[in-house]
Amino acid sequence: MLDTIKYYRSFQAGQTLIWAGDRMEFVASVVTGIATLSQVMEDGRTQTVGLLFPSDFVGRPGRDLAPYDVTAVTDVMMCCFRKKPFEELLHSTPNIGQRLLEMTLDELDAAREWMLLLGRKTAREKIASLLVIVAQRAASLEMRMAKGKMVFDLPLTREAMADYLGLTLETVSRQMSSLKRDGVISLEGTRHVSVPDFDRLLEEAGDDTDGGFLG
Amino acid sequence: MLDTIKYYRSFQAGQTLIWAGDRMEFVASVVTGIATLSQVMEDGRTQTVGLLFPSDFVGRPGRDLAPYDVTAVTDVMMCCFRKKPFEELLHSTPNIGQRLLEMTLDELDAAREWMLLLGRKTAREKIASLLVIVAQRAASLEMRMAKGKMVFDLPLTREAMADYLGLTLETVSRQMSSLKRDGVISLEGTRHVSVPDFDRLLEEAGDDTDGGFLG
DNA sequence: CGCGAGCCTTGACCCAGATCAAATAAATGT
DNA sequence: ACATTTATTTGATCTGGGTCAAGGCTCGCG
To answer: Measured between alpha carbons, how far is A34 from A79 in angstroms, rounded to an integer?
Structure first.
């Protein structure tokens, strides 16, 4: 029966769904909300290694210990598949494997683009890059265009941004203020972002790829 | 016939096999030698996003523009497969897709571990981590144990190390000197490294995973 | 409405690693 | 061996972003 292999779970913002080292008895895909994948060193230094948006996949067939913490940054609904039956399904249905390979390759490319960001970009470029990513990925859901401005909600706290960008929260805050001062973005509250000129933001991100569609 | 789908090519150290943006008419796997995958920004800032050792796979079925430069750091022999027939093979032989997914997931994990390194580790930890990786991966080939010391050749120049670690070559050089001064490694010439106490090196790498076998 | 508890911003200062600049040391060719 | 070129080390100095330390918002709650 389907309901023995597939079920839904929801989590509150801030909740850690999975701890690194946990035994994973399911793989899952995000239905609604946003979560982070992160690694923590013994001394507490934290690096977020992935942002999960709706439709993103979590977990790895053929491994049963979780390698990262998975934390809900907004309320999250996940669609979980018990691992055993999912793996059988995977073996019997080549298309799923095909699709999974495709998704994994996309994630690998995203990870590598992030490596460039972490290794070589300035704090300002990092922030601009993150805003571009969030604008693009949140676009399908909540983004609005109002009088030519792109407007969206930043789901991450300053600290979560810092952990994803390899910065401190103070630096994130300062660079947000600086981008605002320079008219690249404007803020209402701390989370509502509007971008009057998206090309300008792309320039600030220092990105060779314009728009980020698959090269 | 096999020879229409599969063929070998060799490249000299320093040669760029593939430029980002090139049309790729093949996928390939490394037979001998070491290559880097790297991204370059317009202003020249370079980040290496992957090291390719023998048996590693290059290229992505279902995409025909290369996303990164691939550069031989030693002389390299590659085993190339023309893309069209390879993709057909992939569709008709589920095991290959299976294996490819496995390899891609491993690369994704490696990329994410490198994100932690790039975002959060100090220069000294970065160098130590790189030495650990090279020692582990080069182990199968050329590493020797001599009187309890692990001895191996570093295939990368200081600049290539810097590009992989998100540092400058001067910092790489200083940290190598510092690790040597502190007895963590010793150097004969600039490339022959010996490690008297591998656990000490692991500590210096600040790594939670000891040894790096799949968690 | 006022009180906390989280977030977020801002300022002052510091330091790891970048930059600039020589001086060596290795490789390569003749 | 010698000249040339290419790596590497080392020193001096600078700076982007970290650290430490106040305050300010904001939102939920009594």
So the answer is: 13
Whether A65 sits inside 8 A of B114 (CB atoms) is no
DSSP B8: E
For B:49-68, CB contacts with A below 8 A are 49-50, 60, 62-63, 65, 67-68
Locate the domains of chain B by residue range.
2-117, 122-204
Partners of A65 on chain B (C-beta within 8 Å) are 215
What's the pLDDT tens digit per position in B61-106?
Answer: 888 899 999 999 999 999 999 999 999 998 888 888 889 999 999 9
Q: Which of B27, B91, B101, B213 would you mutate first to test chain A, the one with the most A CBs within 10 A?
A: B101
> Which residue reads 């053929």 in tokens?
A62
Fold (CATH) for A2-93: Jelly Rolls (2.60.120)
Percent of chain B residues past pLDDT 90, beyond the cut: 79
Q: What is the pTM of this model?
A: 0.93
Domain B2-117: CATH architecture, name and number where available: Sandwich (2.60)
Q: Is A42 on the interface with B (CB under 8 A)?
A: yes
Chain B: residue nearest A207 by CA?
B41
pLDDT band at B181 (very low <50, low <70, confident <90, very high): very high
Handedness of CA B23, B29, B35, B39 (dihedral sign): positive
pLDDT above 50 for B215:
no
- The answer to whether B189 CB sits below 7 Å from nucleic acid chain C is yes
Q: Distance between CA atoms of A46 and A165, rounded to whole angstroms?
A: 10
Residue closest to A100 by CA, chosen among A65, A64, A61: A61
How high does pLDDT run on average in chain B? 91
